[in-house]
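Need the bound structure for flavin-adenine dinucleotide, inputs here:
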Amino acid sequence: MMISSCPQDLLSPNIEAFFPDNDHALTGTTNNESLNNSAILKDFQINIRKISSKSTEMIFPSGMKIEFNVPMKRYTSFKIGGPADYFARPASVEELLQLLRAARNNSIASLVMGSGTNILVKDNGIRGLVISLVKMKNEIEIQDIDTDHVVLSASAGTILAALCRKTIRDGLEDFSFAAGIPGTVGGAVMMNAGTGIGTISDSLVSIDILDTDNNIRRLDRSQLLFSHRKLDFISRPAISSVNVRQKDSQPVILKASFLLRKGNREKVEQSWRTLIKKRKTTQPHGMPCAGCFFKNPDNGKSAGALIEMAGLKKRRVGDAMVSEKHANFIINLGNATAMDIITLKEIVKKTVFEKFSVKLSEEVIIQGE
Ligand SMILES: Cc1cc2nc3c(=O)[nH]c(=O)nc-3n(C[C@H](O)[C@H](O)[C@H](O)COP(=O)(O)OP(=O)(O)OC[C@H]3O[C@@H](n4cnc5c(N)ncnc54)[C@H](O)[C@@H]3O)c2cc1C
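Answer from helper R.:
Posting the output first, comments after.
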């Protein structure tokens, strides 16, 4: 995660805030001469189509946009969240680097996300630049290792479902666990996404990340510590130069590689179908949510079982409700605010603790203010 608080002047986002150097301030004008002098143009050759104090977006020559004041409810599966000051979806590592460099040069905090299926954004939004990697996708490579194995590599923005389809088509095993998990490969690795039959870390061999010199570094499995729905970077020397600008930040994952067994296409497909069917019968379908809200405790009953035993199914705060179908899902019935969800999850935590002395911790990442 690469987010921290922003200077006060960024609270009302506008183009001047993104480029706070006064010499280059772009104030309600489309004067190209002043633009040509701007540091940002020198650095990034941005072709700004709409320059005014009312600008809503800025467009790079490649077509990539930085949009201003973007409601995060559009980009999270909860369909909740106030505006991000700046929002962009780079389509390549080069565009991602341009954005990170521009943010850093202007002391603007940045947050990298995937599809937003595990994030709750608070109602006042996110101060800084949110970068979604969903357009950095479709780069799936498969390399034969021996008669029984391949290494499959996918860029961070690749949708997990697309990867699942590819493994089915090619009869590759070890990815069935991911059947029905939404989101991107990068998000899945950060969250160590998984189900009862496996997690993404089981077959992971390496990831590529960005370092502060804007070089791509490869970290192998031994440098990564996976636990339940969590990735930690254990190899300090290896990440000392990683792109960590704030103390709570994380490197950006660009690509992940997995060692998969060659198998039988029908068998792989059948196992995928079984899991999808099970998911449909046990989880709410089509409701805005972020999957399981709480992590399962280390031992004993699952979070869902504890919440259900505490009698909390269908408990509501505003339009936030504990799902009747799966008690670990908090769903948005239509107009839930982040505050509704947060109030409800606190009720759930308190009740479960009072009844069973178990402290639940959130799996969903809460962002913003
Ligand atoms: C209906 C539903 C069902 C779900 N079922 C499951 C399930 O069975 N198992 C499970 O584990 N999860 C499940 N989830 C949760 C979610 O889908 C996974 O955690 C998923 O892997 C998140 O991917 P994402 O791209 O949406 O990540 P996001 O939600 O966008 O981000 C998650 C975190 O990862 C960080 N991040 C994302 N991409 C990168 C990157 N490239 N580099 C650095 N940091 C990054 C973000 O900053 C954030 O902290 C479910 C969610 C929904 C809505």
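Comments: The CA atoms of residues 176 and 309 lie 30 Å apart. The chain has three domains: 8-132, 140-280, 284-367.
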